[in-house]
């Protein structure tokens, strides 16, 4: 199939895909003053796998692990809870301190139950839903802290590392029992991340994997660090890749629909579509992607979009109502410092265990009201307020005589709790549909929240309404086991990542250069005189690698050649910048304020013992934006020295 780009289009089988999303450019848009070149890639993007792949879906509320081994066609989910026979378990971890040494005492439901029943947390440290801290808009950095339920603070990256290490050990336990034991280093590992995350969140997961020893024979993290963290040792970096959650779910959904068609075309829901959109509605994130599949190859057609209206918002809405009923914002009076961890555990049980069960029943349309039995400790503290206020709330009742249970009518729960979150999903879905120009006719709704019947009903109705207003129809499908779609799809993706031929850039990326000053083109503010070169130059020019929305082909890399500003320069530092905007021409405005954000840097030594003239001392910068993580390198032609980015996106800037 032809995969060459010609003019403003990319030929994809019989399709022609626009390279730029012109629609994103505002009317006053001006093209960049400098643009990098695209050249064919010479190395492979991903390590070729031996066939042993393990993928971890590290979700906000839950975690699962899927794997396959060499010669095995099947993808298997690892059972993470023997008692419940569950493949997907809560993202909850109970750690135990013994001196400085930390071990994982329990994970999932087990961790939660043990912690909730503890009279004193003492040497135990408990965390739940820690991925919530890593929203796209949060500028995470390596030294970001997370507070345990008892109020102690630890590095978030290290807590994630303990969880990854636990999951690695669980998989290894399974393989140690087999006739042909497999080791950690026999696997290619995948960790899934929301597509809407920026480079920092992704980098955090990668660094956590290094600390966990995921790609080495080492045991991995065994204690918390108290000093500031530095870049971890990167061993076997190519043994880990990050998969984008909705992309993985898309591959899974296509495969499931495909399987169904192969088995029984007559009863299949639809034909295997060539254009489809996936809405991954999880606990913390709504993450949307649209793909085009032609002859088994894929183009990711939209810029990742989504928001934070995941299922956890429903628990938060219930929490708000409860705070209102007891008249205590944030349950401040209940959370006594001397009993903080026990009180937090009690609240957590109400909101994320007892209410959670009711929410799932309601979501699956199996109940007619929400009934949450309140624990004695909570009732004792708020008895008076509970009886008084609950009576005044429409659709809310509190039974103080028989079972201390709070009842909420179905209609109230649906509109107050589910309503805003479903609106959140619908808003960003309709926006993605507009941007896609209604080309997509098939929607896959995945994730635990997406798989919920009530959400499916509402989201389906909203999408169908939008399509029928255009005089067309569409299908909104929940594939089998929608909560396992991400982990399974991530294994499918890792088997053949080259299948994805292009993605759209989520932001505008570039570097800072100075170029000869042009009176007609450049703003006086940026003019300076370079003594050595004896010419006026224009500083702070944003040399653009990629514009937001631009199609990034997997078989291309982006390159620019720089020379030092002065003959005496012995080192060159290249900052890498990004902006969500288009048409940015300089990295600062005429008030000296940054117009872009620095996301990383390359530092390269450029010695010059033979006194080669300045303009022959080329440093070639190559950047690869086509994968799931940004890779950058710089090479000094004279010495042949090359630096890859430490891709140090995580150091505070
Ligand atoms: N039947 C149901 N009704 C309502 N909500 C449900 C139902 N089943 C699952 N959920 C919700 O779905 C969410 C979990 O979905 P999922 O496991 O896909 O999230 P996650 O992967 O942990 O989070 P994220 O992808 O955002 O990081 C939880 O908030 C859970 O309460
Ligand atoms: Mg998820």
UniProtKB/TrEMBL annotation:
Which of UniProt's keywords are assigned here?
ATP-binding, Nucleotide-binding
CDD domains recorded: ASKHA_NBD_HSP70_HSPA12 (cd10229)
InterPro entries noted in UniProt: ATPase_NBD (IPR043129), Hsp_70_fam (IPR013126)
Molecular function GO terms recorded: ATP binding; ATP-dependent protein folding chaperone
- Keyword Nucleotide-binding assigned: yes
Entry's family note: Belongs to the heat shock protein 70 family.
Q: What is this protein called?
A: Uncharacterized protein
| Native species | Amphimedon queenslandica
Gene name linked to the record: 105314463
